[in-house]
Amino acid sequence: MENVYKRVLKFKNRYPGTIAWRLKQNSEIIEKHLNPDEKVKYVFAGQENESHLNIFETGIVVLTNKRLLIGRKRLFFGYFLNSITPDMFNDLKVASGILWGKVYIDTLKEFVTLSNISKDALPEIETEITSFMMEEKKKYYRGENEED
Fold this sequence. Notes:
Oligomer: single chain
Low-confidence stretches: none
Shape: globular
Strand content: 25-35%
Order of helices and strands: HHEEEEEEEH
């Protein structure tokens, strides 16, 4: 299986306009938290913040067969990890500017903004995440109705 780092490099090579740094360190955070039964479906990178000017908060976003993970290594010590399961996912919004775009992920408990993503990558990101989440949400709702 291809590791997260190789997949994020492929994304970065396909969309070189995306601003992302320290891909290897950020990928290691995700790989550390992948469960043994999880399979990586899609990987991309962006800045985990609202501002196009702040380019030092690179986050790696990984869509697995179970959840969405966002990992970000801190500069000196520690890291941040967000795990979004399909039942917590509410909505995804994409905004495109002149050079870059933003992806907004709305969940029940938080709102995640990823910026400085190549605007050419936005349709691919939106399709991958929403198609997966919609299929998985159907399973959650079917499971609730079967118990009644």
